[in-house]
Design goal:
Blueprint lengths: L5 H16 L6 E4 L4 H10 L5 E7 L6 H14 L4 E6 L8 H17 L4 E2 L4 H13 L4 H4 L5 E2 L2 E2 L7 H11 L15 H17 L3 H30 E2 L2 E3 L8 H14 L7 H12 L7 E3 L6 E8 L2 E8 L1
Parallel strand pairs: 1-2, 1-4, 2-3, 4-6
Antiparallel strand pairs: 5-6, 7-8, 8-11, 9-10, 10-11
Helix pairs in contact: 1-2, 1-7, 2-7, 5-8, 5-9, 9-10, 10-11
């Protein structure tokens, strides 16, 4: 086999990933949709360690059960030691794409049993994520894109173009499934993929996907450094689960808001928005006796409210 071929390139990418992040374990799992990215990754992964293929059936398309079973059989033929179909119920929270993603990740995490889970996200997926965050005015954490390694999640192909995974399937004689949702204009990400990114590549003369991926890497490194500093500052400012205003009001804006975010998360907040964090920040920097700020949580019939009293920020519960 040509050492410069696409399959060999994927093997090198996987080996480099394992070495860089010291991915341990006698076996691993791979999330297999049947598409070219995950199918090529499964083929390569099964040749490195005992591999369990986890095929999630979202039940969102009439033939989803057949597609999932075809992917499961392909995994067995590729040498996976186990291959399972996970059927999930997709809710409505956050829209169809977000709801399907939440259901998928929950099922994968439960089925993996703590083993590493390889995901077939490519450089193109990373570029789309960054572009989506830019268009929505998201903060740096969203623009930093997907992390290569966030146990149990492993994304060894984030530096690989989508065209390479398709070429690898061709080299191996594999016929991947083509998800119609990937080209359905009803989905924002599919329009980014089929309309926006090709236009940007044309207007800017190419290299846009790689540039967006580099942007994600740089921002992620900056965010990690700031998060480490924020963790130290949060520990210094905590007093019986409250936040002492005088210990955070002189911190730089970016660091102070990270401290506030970390404190709110530790208190049980979920799905925090930039607007909520900034409103809590106003309790520190623009205090004029205003009321508390309600933040997201998983509580039923109650809500979490951050307020200020006696020079400290406190979180309490209120009935809805």
């Amino acid at each position: 086999m040509d050492r410069a071929g696409p399959v060999a390139g994927l093997r090198r990418a996987l080996a480099a990933f394992v070495s860089r992040f010291d991915v341990e374990g006698k076996h691993w799992c791979v999330a297999l949709s049947g598409g070219p990215d995950s199918l090529a990754l499964t083929a390569v992964a099964a040749g490195v360690r005992p591999t369990t293929a986890l095929v999630v059936d979202h039940g969102l398309q009439p033939d989803s059960a057949s597609v999932a079973e075809t992917a499961r059989q392909a995994a067995v033929q590729l040498g996976c030691t186990d291959a399972r179909v996970l059927r999930v119920a997709v809710g409505r929270s956050g829209g169809p794409e977000a709801a399907a993603r939440s259901a998928r990740y929950a099922a994968l995490q439960e089925a993996s049993g703590g083993a590493p889970v390889l995901l077939g996200h490519t450089l193109d997926d990373q570029a789309e994520t960054v572009l989506l965050g830019l268009g929505r005015g998201s903060g740096s954490r969203s623009l930093a894109g997907m992390r290569p390694h966030q146990p149990p999640w492993c994304r060894p192909l984030l530096g690989v173009r989508r065209a390479v995974t398709q070429a690898a399937c061709d080299e191996l004689g594999l016929t991947p499934w083509r998800d119609p949702h990937n080209v359905d204009p009803a989905y924002t990400r599919s329009r980014l993929r089929t309309e926006v990114l090709p236009l940007l590549e044309d207007v800017l003369g190419g290299g846009v996907a790689e540039a967006l991926a580099r942007t994600a890497t740089g921002l992620r490194e900056d965010c990690d450094a700031l998060d480490d500093l924020a963790g130290t500052s949060l520990s210094a400012a905590l007093a019986e689960r409250t936040l002492e205003v005088q210990r955070v009001d002189r911190l730089p804006d970016a660091l102070r808001r990270r401290v506030i975010r970390g404190w709110l998360l530790a208190a049980g907040a979920t799905d925090l928005t930039d607007n909520q964090i900034r409103r809590v920040d106003d309790l520190v920097m623009n205090w004029h006796g205003q009321g508390g700020v309600a933040v997201g949580s998983s509580l039923r019939n109650q809500r979490l409210v951050a307020g200020r009293a006696g020079g400290r920020l406190r979180v309490h519960r209120e009935p809805v």
